[in-house]
Amino acid sequence: MRTRQLGPFTVSAIGLGGMPLSMNSSGLPPTDRAIATVHAALDAGVTFIDTADIYAPSWDAMGHNERLIAEALNAWSGDKSTIVVATKGGITRGEGETWGRDGTEAYLRAALEKSLDALQRDTIDLYQWHRPDRSLVYAQVIETFAKFKAEGLISAIGISNANVEEIAVALDALGDGGLASVQNRFSPQFRSSADELELCTQEGIAFLPWSPLGGIGNDAEKLNADYPGIAAVARAHAVSPQQVTLAWELALAPNVIPIPGASRPQSITDSVKAAELDLSDAEVQQISDSWGPQIPYAD
User: Which residues form the NADP-dependent oxidoreductase domain (predicted)?
Assistant: First the structure.
C-alpha cells in the first residue's frame, strides 16, 4: 500500500469511511459483515479509518459507528498501533431526528469525551470539526481544538466542510503545521471544493475527499453511464470505474487521501487497489474533462 502524509501520521493512500456501516439508505449491514468489511480494509493495507459521532442509525444511538470501529479493531489480529483513527464532532442530533450545529467549548468537550469512550482510546488521533457553527467566530472554535490538543486529548486537528476563507482562518489560528487536514466533499459529481483542494496542496495540508465515489448508490453502472471518460479509462486498464475514480483523485495532488465508504468487504478491497493504479497525464485530463451530472453545492 502506498502512503501519504496526514499531519504527524503516515497513512495509506486510500482510507476507509465508516459511515455506510451505520447510516445506509439501503439498510445497515449485519454486525458480522460490518466488522468483516473493516477487517478486509485493514488486511488490504488501509491504515486510516474515518468516523464521526453522528454516524448512527438513529438519534439515540450516537457513537454507533465509533463503537463498531473499536469492536472491529479489538477483534483484528494485526498491528493496531499502525492504524490511525479520525472522528468528528460539532453536529448535534436530537430527539425526533432534529439536526443542528454546536461549536461551543462545552459541547465539543462533551462530544470529545464521548468519542474517546466509544473508541476506547485515551487520545483521538485526528479530531475534526464536522461542520461550522456560523453563530460563532470561526477562529475561537479552532482555538478550542488547539486547547484539546494541548491537553493531550487529541493528536492532530482537522476541519471538515470548510471553505477557502475558513481554511485560512484555521491556518492563521493554529500556525505552521497546526492544521493536519481538511475533509470536504469531492468527486466527479461534486467538484465545488476544487479551490479548497488547491489551497490545501499549496499549504501541505492533507485533503480528505468524502463521498469520493459520489455517495451511496453511485455504483459502477452509474459511473460508467454518467462519465464516459471514467468508463473509457476503466476499460483500458480492465479495472472497475471505482478504482479509476479514486486513482484520478490521487493523481490530482500528492496530499489527497480519499476515504471511500463501504458496507461489504468486496467493495473496499476493490477500492484499495486504486492506490496502485497509475494513470497517465492524458488519462487524468480525460477524466477531468468528463463532466457528467453535477451535485450543486449546499452548505
Answer: 14-289
